[in-house]
Amino acid sequence: MMESKMELWLEKANVLIEALPYIQRFHGKTIVVKYGGSAMVDEELQKSVIRDVALLKLVGFRPIIVHGGGKEITKWVNKVGLETNFINGLRVTDQDTMEVAEMVLNKINKNLVSLMEKTGLKAVGISGKDGTILHVEKKLSGGRDIGYVGEVTKVNTSLLDTLLDNDFIPVICPVGSDDDFHSYNVNADDAACAIATAVQASKLAFLTDIEGVYRDPLDKSSLISELTIPEAEEFLQSGNVGGGMLPKLQNCIDAIKAGVSRVHILDGRIEHCLLLEFFTDKGIGTAIIGESEERYFSGEVK
């Protein structure tokens, strides 16, 4: 009995030892987490993500959370009797839809802040309009006007720097404003990439409903643990990437080229996915890294 307990204690100690170099390396560094997918709607997964963020904060990381809310927006748009239309995967957003989207995103935002504060974290919920964080211009879809959908053209980090320097976690909903201060809905992945680039984040993590990037989408054993930029670009050109992963992987590449050190695509349905990816040698998702970055594990990319 005592032997089995000792093995368990040693296993826990080994986990902490494995995490130590990553804690040392990223202590004091800014990370951006794009929070979405099932991790936003499942109560237990929500708690898991928040606890992960709490631990990351306590060991010296400086987290920024960017969240989406597409499913919730669709639900409320339908509830109030508006039509939901998409062109090339982008929501057509007229003025009425934009009002609903902004209200829903702000509701989600404050709920996340409450969850964090229950865990003892100091969090502040803001939108990309606050402090003119996200400056946007109208985004077209295949040359077509889709309403109040914005493309980020500039990120003002002044408010984010102030919050981080005062030990707060910024929780950001992806609404930006243009030169005339009109509100625009921004794709949350795009917002997270733009913010991570502007703050020169050491890590950008996407919480998704997939395990990561597969060399063969039909073969679950072909998960790729790490990709350099040339490998990721070659993979994009191979034609094996489709659906929502295509723009996400392109976002990852763009973020790395713009100065983000590492980008992670994680399965947010796995409890404590952030800790498993950040603090273990191999991780559980796919990490895209710059050419000058060291790999987390030896051997060929799987």
Description:
The protein has 302 residues and is an alpha/beta fold. The protein has 9 helices and 14 strands. It has an 8-stranded mixed sheet with strand order 5-8-2-1-11-13-14-12, sandwiched between helices. It has a two-stranded antiparallel ribbon with strand order 3-4. It has a two-stranded antiparallel sheet with strand order 6-7. It is globular.
Concise synopsis of the structure shown:
The protein has 302 residues and is α/β, with parallel strands linked by helices. Helices cover 41% and strands 24% of the residues.
Write the layout of secondary structure elements.
Elements: H1 2-26, E1 30-35, H2 43-58, E2 62-67, H3 70-79, E3 86-87, E4 90-91, H4 95-118, E5 123-127, E6 134-141, E7 144-155, H5 158-165, E8 169-173, E9 175-177, E10 183-185, H6 188-198, E11 203-208, E12 226-228, H7 229-237, H8 245-257, E13 262-267, H9 273-279, E14 286-289
Parallel strand pairs: 1-2, 1-11, 2-8, 5-8, 11-13, 12-14
Antiparallel strand pairs: 3-4, 6-7, 9-10, 13-14
Helix pairs in contact: 3-4, 6-8, 7-8
Core attributes:
302 residues; alpha/beta; 41% helix; globular; disordered C terminus
Query: How many strand segments?
Result: 14
Q: Give the amount of beta strand, in percent.
A: 15-25%
| CA distance, first residue to last residue | 39 Å
SS-derived structural category: alpha/beta
Poorly predicted regions:
297-302
What is the count of helical runs?
A: 9
Biggest sheet features = 8 strands, mixed
How big is the Rg?
19 Å
Order of helices and strands: HEHEHEEHEEEHEEEHEEHHEHE
Strand order of the largest sheet: 5-8-2-1-11-13-14-12
Shape descriptor reads globular
The residue-averaged pLDDT reads 86
Helix content: 40-55%
